Amino acid sequence: MGGIDLWTTLLLTLYGIVVFLGQGAPVVLAYGMPSLGPRDDAAAKPSPEVSVIIAARNEEEDLPACLDDLLHQDLRARGGRMEVLVVDGGSTDRTAEVARAHPLGPRVIPEPPLPPGWVGKNWACHTGSREARGDALLFLDADVRLAPEAVRVALARLESTGADLLTLAARVVMEGFWERVVLPLYTQFVLTYFRSPHVNDDGSERAMANGQFMLFSRAGYEKVGGHAAVRGDILEDVRLAQEVKRRGGRIRLYWAPDLLTTRMYRNRKELREGLLKNLHGTRFSLGRQVGFAAAILAFFLSPFVLAGLGVWERNWIWVAVAGFLIAVTLAKQAGFQRALRAPLRYALTYPLGCLFYLDLLARSIHRGTTDRQVTWKGRTYAMDGDGSLPPP
């Protein structure tokens, strides 16, 4: 009996250490993220012209505010030059009309018919890049909101670091219940999966980018083959970043909550569709999805199982260990809620967020093992990196 107790104690200790370290990993990574703010590079006067390219498909609601922010950029006042191109990706709303009527006067480019093998956004970005005149190319999403200094500061940092690609992580605005439950977990998963601070290490193979704000030098963009090199990838930002690193290029990734904000999803349907697309992209991996589900169960939900078993067996040591791990997780969740400027009380909902993710993973596995298709922005793509499917 003594041996059994000893082994039980050792296993319980090891389990507690693993879960504790797993919860600590995103905290360490978050503290390691370099940041960029309005006062950084304040005296810099960028020299190259930047072309801002917005791939817009049914964006009449978000586009005006984005163009307003571009209109009020302080870049021109500091001697910089900027052109704005809106590529209308076959919108069925008033996206093109809204863009043409805006005081900024962007160039509105109708997207040519989508060729086989291309994802819509990649085709729009590629189309815009071929029309752009700038020495730097900024690919911007319509749902992004910019501080007046954002483009200038980013462009100055691109120049000063000699980076091929500079990308900013936005503060995600969360207004709905499910956004506040799920997106703080999403932030942690991204930090942990990509080891985000290591992206800025030129000797590391870690690579990622935020497709909402990707600023390339013209030479860096052309060196990787531009969006044509990732034509069939829904997660084009990550794939472009990987190409930059693979070809010996330099990436700079910054947390920029005071320069960049976005509200990614406005309801539960958009949230589910968007995160499901991000989970599997067009390169499905059953092993990755199963591993992700196992990690959620092990690091977030298993302490509740341990607590229940402890109460059932009247083993208060198990209950105490489980309670400690749950408290650690709650504290970490509260920290992320605060950093993301979301209500602290939603830290208590993290088990619900985990269940939401497990449901997404189940859906992802079902899609990946049956129809092998991804739907995004009204278009359907093959789940093997093959891009768009022919219409039915």
Keywords for this entry:
alpha/beta; Spore Coat Polysaccharide Biosynthesis Protein SpsA, Chain A; 392 residues; 49% helix; 2 domains; three-stranded mixed β-sheet; 12 helices
Structural write-up:
The chain has 392 residues and is α/β, with parallel strands linked by helices. The protein has 2 domains: 2-29 and 285-371, no CATH class; 35-176 and 196-265, Spore Coat Polysaccharide Biosynthesis Protein SpsA, Chain A (Alpha-Beta Complex). The chain contains 12 helices and 12 strands. Strands 3-2-1-4-8-6-9 form a 7-stranded mixed sheet, with helices on both faces. Strands 5-10-7 form a 3-stranded mixed sheet. Strand 11 (373-376) and strand 12 (379-382) form a beta hairpin. Helix 1 (2-32) crosses helix 6 (177-194), helix 10 (286-313) crosses helix 11 and helix 10 (286-313) packs antiparallel against helix 12. The termini are far apart.
Give the arrangement of secondary structure elements.
Layout: H1 2-32, E1 49-56, H2 63-71, E2 81-88, H3 95-101, E3 107-110, H4 120-131, E4 136-140, E5 144-146, H5 150-161, E6 165-169, E7 171-172, H6 177-194, E8 213-217, H7 218-223, H8 236-246, E9 251-255, E10 260-262, H9 268-280, H10 286-313, H11 316-339, H12 350-369, E11 373-376, E12 379-382
Parallel strand pairs: 1-2, 1-4, 2-3, 6-9, 7-10
Antiparallel strand pairs: 4-8, 5-10, 6-8, 11-12
Helix pairs in contact: 1-6, 1-11, 6-12, 9-12, 10-11, 10-12
Rg on CA atoms, Å: 23 Å
Mean pLDDT: 90
Q: CATH superfamily of the largest domain, called what?
A: Spore Coat Polysaccharide Biosynthesis Protein SpsA, Chain A
Q: Describe the main β-sheet briefly.
A: 7 strands, mixed
How many domain modules? 2
Number of strands: 12
Which regions contain 5 or more consecutive residues with pLDDT less than 50?
Answer: 385-392
Spatial strand arrangement across the major sheet: 3-2-1-4-8-6-9
Oligomer: single chain
Intertermini distance? 66 Å
The assigned CATH architecture of the largest domain is Alpha-Beta Complex
Run of helices and strands = HEHEHEHEEHEEHEHHEEHHHHEE
Helical residue percent band: 40-55%
Structural class: alpha/beta
Output the number of helix runs: 12
Categorize the overall geometry. Answer: globular
CATH topology of the largest domain: Spore Coat Polysaccharide Biosynthesis Protein SpsA, Chain A
- The fraction of residues assigned to DSSP E strands is 5-15%
The CATH C-level name of the largest domain is: Alpha Beta
